[in-house]
Specification:
This protein is of the alpha+beta class. The chain has one domain (about 15-75). It has helices at about 15-30, 55-75, and strands at about 35-40, 50-55. A two-stranded antiparallel ribbon has the order 1-2. Strand 1 (about 35-40) and strand 2 form a beta hairpin.
Length: about 80
C-alpha cells in the first residue's frame, strides 16, 4: 500500500469576511480598552472559524472619563 500525504491548502476567506477586515483591525487596535476579541480555533482544520467582537460601553465610558479628568487636573490641561 502506498501512503500519499494529505496536502491541505489554505482556503481563501469569503468576500464578506474580507469586507469586515478593517473593523477587525480597528478592534485589535483598541483591544483591552472596552473592546474584546474572542477567536475560536477549529481543532480539525486549525483555522479560526468563529470570532466575536465585544464592545463594553461601561469600560469605554470609565476610561473616557478618566482621560478627561487627567486633562483637567494637569497643570497645562484645560482651556484658557
Amino acid at each position: 500500500m502506498k501512503v500519499i500525504p494529505i496536502v491541505t491548502r489554505k482556503k481563501a476567506k469569503p468576500a464578506l469576511v474580507q469586507k469586515f477586515e478593517p473593523l477587525f483591525d480597528l478592534a485589535v487596535q483598541y483591544e483591552g480598552q472596552g473592546c474584546h476579541i474572542y477567536q475560536y480555533r477549529n481543532p480539525i482544520t486549525d483555522e479560526v472559524d468563529l470570532a466575536t467582537i465585544t464592545l463594553d460601553l461601561r469600560v469605554m465610558r470609565l476610561q473616557e472619563s478618566e482621560d478627561l479628568s487627567e486633562v483637567v487636573s494637569s497643570p497645562d490641561g484645560g482651556e484658557q
